[in-house]
Amino acid sequence: MEPWRPSPRNPMHRIDPKTFHFQFPNLRYASGRRLCYLCFQVERDYFYYNDSDWGVFRNKVHPRARCHAEQSFLFWFRDQYPCRDEYYNVTWFLSWSPCPTCAEEVVEFLEEYRNLTLSIFTSRLYYFWHPNYQQGLRKLWDAGVQLDIMSCDEFEYCWDNFVYHKRKRFQRWNLLKDYDFLAAELQEILR
Ligand SMILES: [Zn+2]
């Protein structure tokens, strides 16, 4: 496991391959996985060249300092990119989809940053059967967030960019186990 990062202001650069293969598979139920990982990419259009920022956040599970990975990102982003008028293209790759509280906070965040587009690829749907969680996803969708289940392309992209792969080639192994179920479920929720 990678070292504990006490401050939400500091994303990790990458995660190790074991963590990736344990935390990221498309599974219908994955109750042993209490952590949520958020790999992100920020692209900006600024005077004809593109600059981008990358990193990984993880939720904090300490009972006195709970902070979801999404909240860490929002906190970090506001600090890092104070300019609200610039164009930003943000992509998240999440191991679990956002909870209703985080969904709410993302919607507020998008109201602050009018020129920001957010795409979320999630590996699994957190409490997909629960109406409040479904509602949270619909709120994100209605606010213009692009939502999708992580497929082979996204896994490979994450492997290349967010994993200490040491030049090992990407292997899909069990990553796509319940992809079809989750993709259909998400479609149903957003319908
Ligand atoms: Zn949350």
Name a few traits of the molecule.
5-stranded mixed sheet; Cytidine Deaminase, domain 2; alpha/beta; binds zinc ion; cytidine deaminase activity; 35% helix; 191 residues; 6 helices
3D architecture notes:
This protein is an alpha/beta fold. The chain has a single domain, classed as Cytidine Deaminase, domain 2. The chain has helices spanning 17-23, 69-80, 100-112, 131-142, 152-162, 179-190, and strands spanning 37-46, 49-58, 88-96, 116-124, 146-149. The chain has a 5-stranded mixed β-sheet with strand order 2-1-3-4-5, with helices on both faces. The longest helix has 13 residues, at 100-112. Zinc ion (ZN) is lined by residues 68, 70, 98-99, 101-102. Zinc ion is lined by residues 68, 70, 98-99, 101-102.
List the helices and strands and how they pair.
Blueprint: H1 17-23, E1 37-46, E2 49-58, H2 69-80, E3 88-96, H3 100-112, E4 116-124, H4 131-142, E5 146-149, H5 152-162, H6 179-190
Parallel strand pairs: 3-4, 4-5
Antiparallel strand pairs: 1-2, 1-3
Bound molecules: zinc ion.
Can I get a quick summary?
The protein is α/β, with parallel strands linked by helices and 191 residues long. It has helices at residues 17-23, 69-80, 100-112, 131-142, 152-162, 179-190; strands spanning 37-46, 49-58, 88-96, 116-124, 146-149.
Order of helices and strands: HEEHEHEHEHH
Going by CATH, what is the homologous superfamily? Answer: Cytidine Deaminase, domain 2
Summarize the main sheet. 5 strands, mixed
Specify the helix fraction band. 25-40%
Q: What is the domain tally?
A: 1
Radius of gyration: 16 Å
Structural class: alpha/beta
How many strand units? 5
Count of helical segments? 6
Query: What's the overall geometry?
Result: globular
Share of β-strand residues: 15-25%
Give the strand order of the largest sheet, numbering strands 1, 2, ... along the chain. Answer: 2-1-3-4-5
End-to-end CA span: 38 Å
User: What's the overall average pLDDT, rounded?
Assistant: 91
CATH class: Alpha Beta
The CATH topology is what? Answer: Cytidine Deaminase, domain 2
pLDDT < 50 runs, ≥5 residues? none
InterPro entries: APOBEC/CMP_deaminase_Zn-bd, APOBEC_Cyt_Deaminase, CMP_dCMP_dom, Cytidine_deaminase-like
GO molecular function, one term: cytidine deaminase activity
Keywords: Hydrolase, Lipoprotein, Metal-binding, Zinc
Protein name: Apolipoprotein B editing enzyme catalytic polypeptide-like 3C
